[in-house]
Amino acid sequence: MTRPSDFPPDRGVVLFTQGDTAYEFYRDLGTGRVGERVLLAQVRTPRGLGSSVVLKCLPRPDTAEEAEHFQRARARLEEEVRLARHLQHPRIARIQGLVELTHGLCVVMEHLEGLTLNTLLSVAQARGRYFSESFLLHVGAEAAAALEHAHTRTDEAGTPLGIVHRDVNPGRIRLGPRGEVRLTDFGIALSRLTGRVATSFPRAQGDVLYAAPESLLGEAVDARADLFSLGLTLLEFATGRHLYDPGHLLAEELEARLSKEEQEQVLAASVASLGLDLPPFAEDALRCAMVFRSEDVERAAEGLSVPLRDILHTLLRRDPAERFATASELESVLRARQAQQPPYSGEDAVKEVQQALAEADTLLWDVEVPDDEGGISVPVEDEIPTQPASPRDSRGPLKTQRHPDEVTTAPGRAT
Q: Does domain 13-110 have CATH number 3.30.200.20?
């Protein structure tokens, strides 16, 4: 494996070989959660150039201090690979295995084409209009099916694994070029897998802006926490509004809503997380998670149909016992609502994305698509400006990374 000091290598440089298969460097995707280097590579066999894969590469340590971090990171990556053996589902991104190398180790993962909901949210804001309810129902039902598979996995003895994703957010749900919806990255999932790495820290795992209240408070979480996170994701994708970013409330009003008991809970959670690597907006997210009410959900869901608002209300209950009991129940409700709409397929979802890209047109110049996304383009038509197969081109960087402090509101007319 190429050493970190050799980065970035030239495109086409062989990172490592496994048998008669070579993995050639294509693009550096940055640093992962545990400090690993994430790379996009192309597979080459004696038959020629094959598909792309994502590599999580962890170089072996040079110092004693690095050795301790290496062992922790290695344990997490190994657990991710072992857990992936139980997650063989068409709506979940696959991990192909772990490769031991002289200079480190690499996790080989499936590279998915398509665009994440995070990117599509930026496209919607650029064009000044969000996606249809049918699109939202399609994505939500498919994501719920993926979560149901994960939540109900058992080990070889039939013992429930208790898998909780813990990082469901718009960046983890991707629409592929054929309309397929995939849930990605179980890298910080909670499970009862034998030999798992303990991660019971007094903090939310994953993106705190999409964490369930019980997760933010450092309490025990189960599958219903993932459903809350999916609810926040669908609400933002449908309206651009977020419960943890209540623009209609002042800081004083947030404090006034907290009971004495709730204030003590927030204080205890804040103290417990001191010294941890939390983002600066984590405490604000915690306060919002504690104070939001049913009327805030109703205000955030304004403009949506009554049945869809009812679904979001049930997903976004502070008390887990009041949410949908399982992802299967959520999927059934979403599919029932789908059945009340005109027929809508994965191909229809892709067409809707293509239309959104065409309508946004040059406004997408200011939207940065991550390096591992692409593959959905606007059909070539004389009356519609076309986009390249990948939204990245020579016109400049497209920017989707929204600052956490930025208020996300429903877009007005594009200017």
A: yes
